[in-house]
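Summary of Year 1 activities. Much of the first year was spent building the evaluation harness for sequence design. The harness presents a backbone, in tokenized form, and records the residue chosen at every position. We chose the following record to illustrate the format because it has been used consistently in internal testing since the harness was completed.
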């Protein structure tokens, strides 16, 4: 009941924010921007966008399949992916709100347990963010080859890079080097932030531990072939996004 109420509130808030954005921008401005697109360009970008979804779904399938003995149908995984994406864009918490729904949909479609589904989503996100961060660093090199930004902007970038390195270091060190008795990445920050004092967090502690064990198993036991495939697919998807944005600027 509480989950349904939270979803409805998030959906309602998302619709309000969408309506406010429309009123702020104005329908005329939106129609003007859309009319500047030719039909061929619109269809081309639509196809590229859908290919990106297929690539990311295939990457997710590789991750899920690594812990599942029977073969999982791609279309069912795609369905769970699309449901998650829909919730992401309907709620104000973009790229986060639909992930629990995606794990639940995966369970309904393929009988993959919630903990393993949640672990696969975290692994998928970490691989994707790692590739994005790599592209970001490469982009910085190109940026600095053209000009040196203002000192305030440099401090902002430096802070972001250092913080990102810290998060990736903690995640990968806890995942690769931590023993089964040590706290994983999520429990590490839950303890530091004192969130373990919250009753709702304590109730899901066992579930978090199961997710962290699945994540650790994946990176320790399945990392070579699967990580190569997943990283390559993430790179393809990122290149696709860059190409799509280049098309938008033409």
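For this record, the design step produced the sequence shown next.
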């Amino acid at each position: 009941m509480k989950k349904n109420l939270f979803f409805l509130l998030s959906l309602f808030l998302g619709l309000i924010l969408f309506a406010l954005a429309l009123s702020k921008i104005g329908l005329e401005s939106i129609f003007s921007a859309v009319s500047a697109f030719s039909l061929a360009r619109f269809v081309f970008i639509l196809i590229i966008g859908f290919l990106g979804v297929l690539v990311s779904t295939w990457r997710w399938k590789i991750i899920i399949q690594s812990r599942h003995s029977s073969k999982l149908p791609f279309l069912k995984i795609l369905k769970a992916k699309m449901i998650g994406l829909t919730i992401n864009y309907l709620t104000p918490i973009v790229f986060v709100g639909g992930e629990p729904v995606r794990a639940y949909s995966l369970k309904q479609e393929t009988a993959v347990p919630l903990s393993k589904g949640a672990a696969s989503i975290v692994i998928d996100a970490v691989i994707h963010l790692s590739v994005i961060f790599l592209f970001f660093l490469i982009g910085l090199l190109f940026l600095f080859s053209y000009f040196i930004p203002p000192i305030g902007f440099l401090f902002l970038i430096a802070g972001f890079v250092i913080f990102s390195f810290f998060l990736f270091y903690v995640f990968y060190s806890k995942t690769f080097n931590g023993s089964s008795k040590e706290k994983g990445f999520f429990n590490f920050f839950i303890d530091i932030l004192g969130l373990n004092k919250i009753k709702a967090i304590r109730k899901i502690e066992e579930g978090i531990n199961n997710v962290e064990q699945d994540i650790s198993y994946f990176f320790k036991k399945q990392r070579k072939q699967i990580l190569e495939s997943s990283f390559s697919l993430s790179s393809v998807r990122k290149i696709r996004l860059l190409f799509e944005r280049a098309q938008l600027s033409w």
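The first helix runs from residue 2 to 25. Quantitative recovery figures across the full test set are reported in Table 2.
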